Amino acid sequence: MKKKNFQSSLLLILFGLMLSGASTFSLAYPDEGLQIIGEVNHPISLTLEELIAMPQTTVNAALYCYGDLVTSGDWTGVQLSLLLEMAEYNENANSVQFYAEDGYSITILMTEALREDVIISYEKDSQPETLRLVIPGANGNLWISMINSLTLSKDTDATEQAPFKPTELVQPSPTPQQSIAPQPTPKPQSPPSPSPSSSPTAAPANVKAAPPEWMPVAAAGLVLALVCTSLLLYFKKRRH
Predict the structure, then answer these.
(1) Mind giving me the DSSP string for 1-68?
(2) pLDDT (tens digit, 9 = 90+) per residue, 53-73?
(3) Of 31, 189, 213, 240, which residue is the least packed, with the fewest Cβ within 10 Å?
């Protein structure tokens, strides 16, 4: 009987470890998605898991906001041009407007959006981050984060950026890493209500680096380790 109880407890511990792994992933990668609508033939809606499964591109670049260095490093994500091609953008599309969860929005021209070093990143230096537009050489007010929607438009207006002269600018170096990408299921979406663009005269809070994600993960791991140790000691004493 004791042996049976011991085996049942081990199964419960293993199940707890599986749940811990799933919760760790959800803490590291926020529950995000991305929709692409507007002047496209194939509106799509992608989950974060589908974005991560697509071919990756890593760009080494620095984020400057009006001359001040905010952060720099290796940004990993998906080329924006690849996403626009998946949505089958129309030839009359002249610009792409990005919307963030906090209401911030910016617009760039298609000529910029189709550059091979412009990506939608979900990692920086191998650490999870919210979805961010990485556009090397542009001022930080264009590096919008927490993106949840892209709308292609015929408009030719783009968000202005103040000129800046960083003392040291890291040159972008895209290094695509090929992987087999599953075909996401398209989900037509209705366009969100446009949010007003921020003024280029002040540094937006949207470009601040995301806080570290390791603290809640470490706490969850510590609690799980204490529980497992207590169970093992309890059943070891009962066997004697």
Answers:
(1) -HHHHHHHHHHHHHHHHHHHHHHHHHHHS-S-EEEEEESBSS-EEEEHHHHHHSPEEEEEEEEEETTE
(2) 999 999 999 999 888 999 999
(3) 240
One domain, residues 124 and 16: no
Same domain, 14 and 68: no
67: left (phi over 0), alpha (psi -120 to 50) or beta: left
Q: pLDDT-based confidence at 114, cuts 50/70/90? A: very high
Which domain covers residue 195, as residue numbers? 31-209
Residue 33's identity, in one-letter code, is G
Bridge partners, 61 (sequence order): 73
Average pLDDT over the chain, rounded to an integer: 75
Closest CA to 43 of 130, 181, 149: 149
> With contact defined as beta carbons under 8 Å apart, do 97 and 149 qualify?
no
Paired tokens of 153: 């438009």
Measure the CA angle with vertex 77, ends 31 and 200; round to 5°: 85
